[in-house]
Amino acid sequence: MSPAIGGTLNRVDGRFKVRGESRYSAEVPVTNLARAVIVNAKIASGRITAIDTSEAERAEGVLAVLTHLNLGRVATVPRLLPSLAGLAAPGQTFFPMQDDLVHYGGQPVAVVVADTSERADHAGTLIRIEYETTPATTLLDQARDRAYVPERIFGGLLPGHASRGDVAKALAEAEVCVDATYRFAPNHHNPIEPSASTAVWEDVDRLTVYDSTQGPNAVQFTLAELLGLPPISIRVVSHAVGGSFGSKAMVWHHPALAALAARHVGRPVRLVLSREQMFTSCGHREEQEQQITLGARADGRITALRHHKLSLTSPFDDWAEPSLQSPSVAYTSPHYEGVYHLVRGNTITPTFTRAPGEATGMFALECAMDELAERIGIDPLELRLRNYSATDPESGKPWSSSGLTECYQRAAELFGWRDRDPRPRSRRDGQWLIGTGMASALYPVTQPVNPQRARARLYNDGTAVVEAGVSEFGTGVFTAMTQVAADGLGIPVERVRFVGGSSDLPNVTAAVGSAGTSAVGSAVHLAATQLRDELIRRAVADDHSPLRDADPANVEVHDGKMVLRDRPDVGETYADLMHRTFAPDVEVLGTWNPPPQDVGYGVHTFGAQLAEVAVDADLGVVRVRRMVGVFAPGRVLNRKTAHSQLMGGMLWGLGQALLEATRMDPRLGRWANASLGDYLVPVNADAPDVVVDTIEVHDEVVNPLGMKGVGEIGVVGAAAAIANAVYHATGRRQYELPITLEKLL
Ligand code: MOS
């Protein structure tokens, strides 16, 4: 029996998806269901001076119209804490409809409940609201002078500024200097499934919420605090989630609004966000600007890095995507300074968006590196190798594992980088200017804070159920967990069923920061191997077992049969032992305690990205022709799903480079392109020839299986490789994303 881990097992939920049988949270059958819709503020700042709901209340099918005047008050709004902490994780520390103030465009101001969603929608249009408008800040440019440096960001988990050495002195003494400012349009996640919550009260203190979320437990804890109920009163179920990318990582206001509405009307209530509402209800990647100053010696050795970031955050929270972590450790640089600057604006609190922070932070650094390579006159890949750091430059500790130089090498071979003529505009294919570019990819290995748990139960026919509270939002985590459990128990994958997606199951972190599969996988691995060891212990202690008195360390399991390592003909199956000993099932709980932050190693994920673009010499149209990404994500559980995630990440990078931008209309304080028709994402016709490869580095530090995660690293560096290729093709540096064609005319 070959190991399941590392194979290419098809998605265990694939069958249900293609048959249309996956139950998304807006589809779970519930009897006596009422529908709720949110009505959003049409101003970006001010207060409600009058609200007339009488006509809406009289409309056909309407059960209730809730506003700040009659909606139940929330008990506590918990502090903002990334959902990795395993506690309540609200997306912002403001809960709407508690008073008459409006802080951002699209803020909920009313909830209409009716017997159908169409009737609720219609009644929503009948509500008359008068506002008193106050001046709003919706763009960075409107309020640069009000920028401040926060003490901490990211729910308090990261410092607002950090430094080592004397960066000013080192920059003054540098032989070569690159100084550049990069601007980033806001981005939205746009999962195919809009967020939806279905709230069912069975009693005054017994609530089930079917919710599309990356973390059922995080929703449970958040609702408990908002509603003032103990966690035992709340069950959160997430059978299937249709994509997320960070929009469902934190807990936004809609599940609580659904619960409050359901309590108000005494019926189950389903609340589904519209596509347009997805742009104002679940955070976004904030508008930001990053300044990079690199100082180097004439041979390219970096001596100093200064990295400042300016973000537009909400009135409530000091939020910035953490963009400074990977750049601060990407290369040897004795002198460093990184500072976040924030401007408060009239927006919902921004949030995690795929490869949060590092997708933009590494873009800035890797474009500046390309300029540095050109200034010094060396190959961009050679510049990276000269500055490769074998230890974490921040702490001086060795990497738990790296693989970066192997990634560079493999990527260069797959791409054919060696033949590159470094001169810009040196290649042409008819109308098209051809260029190539590269970038390093780094992403922090985020560890959950709290212990991770999974339960494994073996039945006396040799099949097993393994459970943990993680939800499946398209990453393939249920499939990978099936493989981990099968190998841990020594049984084929067909005999394992993984069950997740409910807060009733053992608590695991929300699947965020590329840490979902490694967090739950570590718990599943421990549960499965402990269950195996329990069965072996029982066998060697049983008078009737052929393994009686054997050394447990000398017993291994193949295909459900426990055998002596050196005498594979001696042994018995789990099923035989359990039947003989009247055990219908055996169950254990596996608990993984993540290593402490200060573990004695630098812990990071690495990769290399290369891209070839063609730019129309007259029209400025950019087509990406080829992308090669090679990554070292530690242990790869499933080559198929891991490579799919990495490829998806690279295409996100393509979108970030060329297409994705949410445009704010500052006169109205509203997003001008809040639809999938107007917000551009890459489609198949945009997708080039994408080559993905992985280098499996061994890592004993991060977790029992040595997984570092594949959720984000594929995005990082992809946009920089494309922008650098655009420069190589055209001779024009790009400092603003996305690179739209008018910037190349
Ligand atoms: Mo991920 S963007 O950390 O949900």
TrEMBL record:
Domain Aldehyde oxidase/xanthine dehydrogenase a/b hammerhead as annotated: residue spans: 19-135
InterPro entries linked: Ald_Oxase/Xan_DH_a/b, Ald_Oxase/Xan_DH_a/b_sf, Ald_Oxase/xanthine_DH-like, AldOxase/xan_DH_MoCoBD1, AldOxase/xan_DH_MoCoBD2, AldOxase/xan_DH_Mopterin-bd_sf
Keywords for this protein: Molybdenum, Oxidoreductase
One Pfam match: MoCoBD_1
PANTHER family (UniProt xref): ALDEHYDE OXIDASE 1-RELATED (PTHR11908:SF132), XANTHINE DEHYDROGENASE (PTHR11908)
Name of the protein in its database record: Xanthine dehydrogenase family protein molybdopterin-binding subunit
